[in-house]
Amino acid sequence: MNEAATLGHSAVPSTSITDQSIQIKDHKVEYLSSLTALRGIAALLVAIFHFEMAAARFVPQAQSMFFEKCYLMVDLFFIMSGFIMLHVYSKDFNAGIQGESLKKFFVARFARVYPLHLFSTLLLVVIVRWLTDWGNPPILLEQPADILPNILLLHSFGFTNIYSWNIPSWSISAEFAAYLLFPFLALFLNKKRLIAVLLLTVLVVVAYYSIMYVLPRKNPINPAIPVPHNLNTTFDYGYIRGIAGFITGMLVYLVYGLKAFKRAFSGDFVSILLMLGIGLSLHYALNDGITVLLFAMLVLSVAANTGKISTFFNTRVMQFLGDISYSIYLMQIFLQEPFSHGYLLPGTVGVGRGRQNIELFSGLFYCLIYVLLLVLISYVTYRWIERPCRRFINRSWGK
Fold it and tell me: Rounded distance, CA 337 to CA 343, Å?
């Protein structure tokens, strides 16, 4: 998911990106390039999580829950997205909500997330319904009735009975729900800072707690199986999860604006300590709320870092991965699709989503090929679909 993820680039249509800043109207906004790299890492971890679910699990749960819990990288995307949106657009909604600012914001956000979403969804439908016999009869994840809710970005609001079609794209629906609220949230924070922070903090805590312990969630494949107390909600309450993460990112950005906190989180030791903490939290499957809290601090730390972490994240390879991270996130489905229709990798034992196990080194080998192919595909769609469509829409309607 690449806005940071969303997965989105922090530029808007009238921007001129340099190495140091983004020009927006009459004010400059620092380009937080380290978060671009963090998006790339998160997108690859989501892709590996889905590889284990769809194709071959090469790390047994009994040994480590790290990859099993990497669905939480989507929450990292939401937090980064809220952080970046407030960083870039806060001044546009400082005094009020003006029609011009609102238009530019929504055109930029639509241009960023929708073209590739539409392309990937329609391409998947064409492959399943016309180019193969995979849709006859359709599997549970690819019901024809679910196509329209996916296209209309309604598939995180309970309009479908399961995560469907381009499975990761539920988060784009949730992300866009957060975009719709953002101008009002930004104005609230600008006008009534203290009250807004208190209310929004309570809202985030209640939202996360409700997802884990209150809302009537059901296993979409087998309703008789109890749902764990986690944040892994998608098609049903995904919009709540997305909005909660997005608001968390906005609140973290307010902390980033405090010089004392920014300085305290700027060192490599803090960033490394947080990364280790996240790794352990995922490995031991600690409560998802703990991991999300560590994510929030990690975003603050990476954005503020002035040491070797920043230097590494600003290398060409890491920036490249960040640039194509949204394509990585949405195009992974095409490498997983054959396994949803009965194909098996040599050496796998077991049948069913998440139950196709494989020996560690064979699994690592297949996963490496999968990642390399995904990066190649993502570069193609980034260069020829994602970026040109974004530029065209911004030039045409973002003025």
Answer: 9
Show the tokens assigned to 227. 């749902």
Side chain identity, residue 71? Y
**Residue entry with tokens 């479908």:** 160
CA distances (Å), origin 203, targets 238, 240, 246: 16, 10, 12
Return the SS3 of 167: helix
Q: Is 29 helix (H, G, I), strand (E, B) or coil?
A: strand
The pTM for the full model equals: 0.90
Contact 335, 374 (CB under 8 A): yes
Q: How far apart are CA 80 and CA 16, in angstroms?
A: 21
Distance CA 339, CA 352 (A): 9
- What lies within 8 Å, CB to CB, of 353 at 6+ separation is 53, 54, 221, 340
CB-based contact 307:266 (threshold 8 Å): yes
Q: Which residue has the tokens 């790390």?
A: 59
Sign of the alpha-carbon dihedral angle for 329, 330, 336, 340: positive
Write the DSSP assignment of 91-148 as a string of letters.
GGGSS---HHHHHHHHHHHHHHHHHHHHHHHHHHHHIIIIISSTTSSPPGGG-GGGHH
pLDDT, tens digit, for every residue of 111-129? 999 999 999 999 999 999 8
CA atoms within 13 A on the CB side of 177: 23
Strands 21-24 and 27-30: antiparallel
CA-to-CA dists, residue 191 to 9, 184, 194, angstroms: 27, 10, 9
Pairwise CA distance, residues 352 & 86, whole Å: 42
pLDDT in tens, 134-149: 888 899 999 999 999 9
Residue type, 318: M
